[in-house]
Structure prediction request, 370 residues.
Amino acid sequence: MLLVLIITSAGFILGMSYLSVASVQIQVSQNYQTLARARYIAESGLEHALYVLRFSPEDFESPLGPFYVDGASDSYTIGAQEDSETPGLYTLTSTAMVGSVSRTSSITAFRSDNKKVSTSYGVVVDTVLAIMPTTLTVNGNVHINGQLLNMAVINGGASGTDGISDPLHRITGSIIGDAEEVSLPDIEVEDYIEYTIGRSNYEAEEFTDIDFEQNNPLANGNAVTPSNVGGVVYLRPSSGNTVKLHTNLNFTGTLIIDGNVELYGDNITLTAVDGFPAIVATGAIRVTDLARNVTINGAVVTNLGVIPWGSTSQSSTTVNGAVISNMSGYASQLGGAHVLNYDEDIVKLYDFSVEPGSSMPVVTVQTWND
Prediction:
């Protein structure tokens, strides 16, 4: 009887332990399912928030919701906060409630009403005849709305509407001599004097001197301000139509000019803000013999192209982006050593010729925070 009692007691204890463990496992499983459901509902709320941000961001003056799911009591609430320093950059949040369980997810996203234009070519020129110099290396494709006589190293393809001649056999990619005409991006100086991004208006700074030097108040990133997020500087020299860039100039933003930009020193670095070109000039980019170790990070839009100004045998420039020109592109007489590295991301530019709101707003997710 004692043995039976012991065995029965042991069985009862083991049974109760098993039931307790099973109960805990069921509760853990239910909690996991609840948390998973809350997570998915919160992420669904972020998709809703992206839609609202794209079409009616003004609705986010206060949190929206709760929105109920499938007629049940489960719900989510969404909200958005615009970054104080970067217009168009938002942090979106979505908080889900499943029973007593709350789950919040967030993302950062960039909203733009502005259409962007781009080019698939490192050098694109609209001219009757373009002669690429032997001193140039292009890492990317080249297109001429006309005829191309190539002496440069082109690590990519070349196309032209009226034929291509490559006597030194320096084009590594495909050669198309009867290509269709390519439209150049519609980029004008006037577009950048006053410009709009999203729902905010901005204005370029003016520079009226002839010499742009390293100690200028607009150098070293200082042109980029809350009222001028592109760092656009309108060059309006007090005499003539040319501004000289001097030694050790470090500039972030966009230089625009009804005239010429002259590279008149060494160790010059120009870096465009995302969505903006580095230079827009109705004249030329003049390269002097002093222009050594010049780096331009961004698209260069120049009516008359990149041309020599005096002797240029010692000059050296690198453009990371693209050169867009209505005339020569890189002039055939250009001496020294010059490199163009096509960068697809850098040459995606805001099209300020299109009125904001006339194109579909674009929302791009930057980061997803679980």
